[in-house]
Amino acid sequence: MTLNHRRLTLMSFTNVLLITTLIVLGSTTTIVFADGEVASPPVAMELTSVPDVPVELTVDVGRYQNVRSASVLNWVGDRLLIMTRFGDTSQIHLVSTPLGMREQITFANEPIGGALVPPLAEPKQIIFSKDVGGSESYQLFLMNLDSRKSELLTDGKSRYTGVSFSHSGSRIAYSSTEINGRDTDLFIQDLEGERIVVQQGEGVGWSVEDWSPDEQRILISRYISVVESELYEVDLSTMERTRLLEEHGAISIGSVAYSESGEHVFFTSYLDGEFARIFELDLQSGAVGPRSPILDWNVSFFRLSRDRSMLAYVVNEEGYSKTHLVDLSTKQEITLPKFPLGHMSSIRFNHDDTKIAFSYQTATSQTDVYVLDLGNQALTRWTRSELGELPSHKMVNPVLKRFSSFDGRDIPVFVFEPSSDGPHPVLIYIHGGPESQYRPRFSSTFQFYVNELGVALWVPNVRGSSGYGKEYLGLDNGYLREDSVKDIGALLDYIATDESMDASRVGVIGGSYGGYMVLASLVHFSDRLKAGVETVGISNFVTFLENTQDYRRDLRRVEYGDERDPEMRAFLQSIAPLNQVERISTPLLIGQGLNDPRVPASESRQIVDALQTRDVPVWYVLAHDEGHGFRKKPNRDYWWYVVSMFLKKHLLSG
To answer: Domain holding 529: CATH number?
Structure first.
C-alpha cells in the first residue's frame, strides 16, 4: 500500500470561519457550511494518510480550545510575574492588582520556557529562557523591566538550564552543555557577562541547587536516577568540592536548600523509608534528622521563605496536594486554609515574607494564581482565566478506583465517566515518564472526550509510577519493563466486569513513554483494542537510546537498561514494538515533533513505515516546528481535530 503523503498549505482558522454563512431565524442562529469545506493544517505540519478535517468538526472542538490558564513565576515588588497565553504561545505577563489587567511583556514566536526574578525587594531585571522549534536548547535572556529590552546572555545554540540567582541578585549559576555538547557543566556568571567555570567534564545530570547566604558556597547535585542522586558543596574561593551524605549510600535527593545560617541543609529524600520526606543535615557534624513527619505519601517539594525562617512543603496524597507551613524557629505548624482537592505548585514568598503566591488547579477548574496573606489568612484570587464557552458545572471529576493486576498487586486508576447512560466506550490514558504520575489536573481535552464524545476516560498509574513508594517505583525497571504492560491487560479485564463500560470499544492513548505503552498494548492486546493514539513514543528502546541527545543518554540507560550490554540489548530488541508489528492490527494515530531531542522523530517514522508495509491503518502527523509534543496553539488545535476524527472513526463506530 502506498501512503498518501502530503504537506498542506496554511489556511487560518479565521479565514475558515469567513466561508460560513449565518442564518438567523427568530432567536435561533444556525451556522451553515458549504459542502466539502475543510480546515487546512498549519504550514509546518505534514500529514500522512490523514483525511481532510471537516470545518464542522473544528467548531465542535473549538469550544474546548479557548480555555486559558495562568501560573505564577514570582513576585516583582508587590506585583506578580505570571505565565499565560493570549495568542499562540505562552508568554510572560505582569499583574499589579488582584484580578487586574495582565500586561504582556514578552512577545516571542516561541513559548517562553520559564523566568527567574532576583530575590530583591524591587527587582529591575528578570531572566527568561526560550528555545526554537521545541529543540529544548534553551537560551537565557536578560530583560530590563523599565525599558523592556532583552539581551542574549548565552551562545545561542547550546542548552542552558537550572538557573538560580545569588542572594544579592548580582550573579546567576546554571548548567550547560556548551563546552562539549554532552556534559552538563556548571557555571557562575554576573549580569555583565563575566563568568567562571565551576565544574566541567564530569558527565551528565549536574545542577546547581542553592547559594549559601554569604554567597561563598553553593550546593550542587548529580542526578543518577529517580532513587539515586549525589549532593556536594563547592567552596567558591577554592572550587573545592565536598561530597555530602556519602555515608548513607545511594539515596534520592529532591528539593535542596541552605538554612538561614548556612550551617545546615534541608533536602527531600527516600532516606529512611518508602516515601520521600524532608531531612536536615548539619554540615559540621554530618548529623541528619527528619524535618517532616513520617507519612505514607511523598513530600513533593518544599520552599523556604526569603529570610529562611519558614518552610512550606506540599505532600502528594493519592495524587492531590496537601500543603503545610512550618515556623522553623519554633517547629510549630502554621494553620493554613483548607483547599479543595487539587494541585498546588510554584509557591513563592513575597519580599518581606508576609504573603505567599501560588498556582492552583483542580480536575474541574484550570490553573490560576492565588495569594495568601499569612497575617490574617486571607486568600485572594489574582487571576481568573477564561473557561471559554464551557459551562463550569459540566466539568467532570474523576473517581479513584483500584484493580488487581496479574501478580495480585493493586493498581490505582482515576475514572472520568460521562453523565449519559452507558455502556460507554472507553479510552485508557497512560502517562509518560515512566517515573511520572497522573494527578487530577484540569484538562479541557479530557473534558471534551467525556462530555462531547461520551467516552469514559480511565487513567491508571501503572507500576513504575511515582507517588506510591520506592518499591512501586522500581517495579518496571530493566527486565521488568513489560510488567507495566501486563497492568494494562489486567485493567482491560477489570473494565470488562463493569456493566457501565463497553468492553468491545476500548482505545488507548499516551505520549512519550506513554507512547511506548500504547504501542506495547497494541502488540499484546490488539484483539481487545479498537484504536491507539500515541505522540512522541518509543518504538524500539535500542534505537531510542542510540539516537536520543547525548546529554540524556546515560540518564535513560539507568531506567531502561544499557543497550551496549549484549544481554540487555537482546532483551530490549525482544520487547520492541517495532520488532513485533506483525502482532499489531489495531488502527493507530501517531503525532511527532521533528525537532524532538528526547524521543527522536525516527522512532515514529520507523513504526509508521513498518505498519504501512502490513496494511495496518496508520495516520501520521509530523510538526516541523515542534519538539517533544505540540506546544504551539495552532499545532495543538489541529492535532486535536485529527485525534477527535480518528476516535470517531475507529473507537466510537460500530
So the answer is: 3.40.50.1820
